[in-house]
Specification:
Shape: globular
Order of helices and strands: HEHEHHHEEEH
Number of strands: 5
Number of helices: 6
Largest sheet: 5 strands, mixed
Low-confidence stretches: none
Radius of gyration: 15 Å
Distance between the termini: 19 Å
Helix content: 40-55%
Length: 164
Amino acid sequence: MSQLKELLLRAPRLSLAVAESLTAGRLQARVGAIPGASHFFQGGITTYSLEQKVRHLGVDRAAAAAVNSVSAAIAEQMARGACALFQTNLALATTGYAELSVEWNVPQPFAWWALAHRRGPEDFFIQSTCIDCPNQERIAVQDAVADAALAGLVKYLREHRPSV
């Protein structure tokens, strides 16, 4: 993850926040474990419930309720909300099912992670990616999604940051 630090601290410096649901703090822990993280990491929030996603991240209540807070659009709203909450340039967000759900007709674990890059006051680049985790246990799903989100952020920064 030292590559992430280098990419974020390259001029112009970028700041990062995290909004988690499915990963339950694993993403924040990985970022916080990077030596010197305080130079770019502004913080994170874990919002498991719809109420907290709406309250802290500005997620659209009706849209989230319709999909049990699990969709590309909700992950994207969470990422954008984390940028606003922590006043950062970048944010990652995760939401999904770490286990099957009969109630929501989810036969296998899957998740969405999203990246928001604020380029101006109202100018955002947003991307989201779905991760399928068939036959994986809850903790393995959470770890896989946290790893995928960080790898996606590094890939994005490698492709979109100017070389020094």
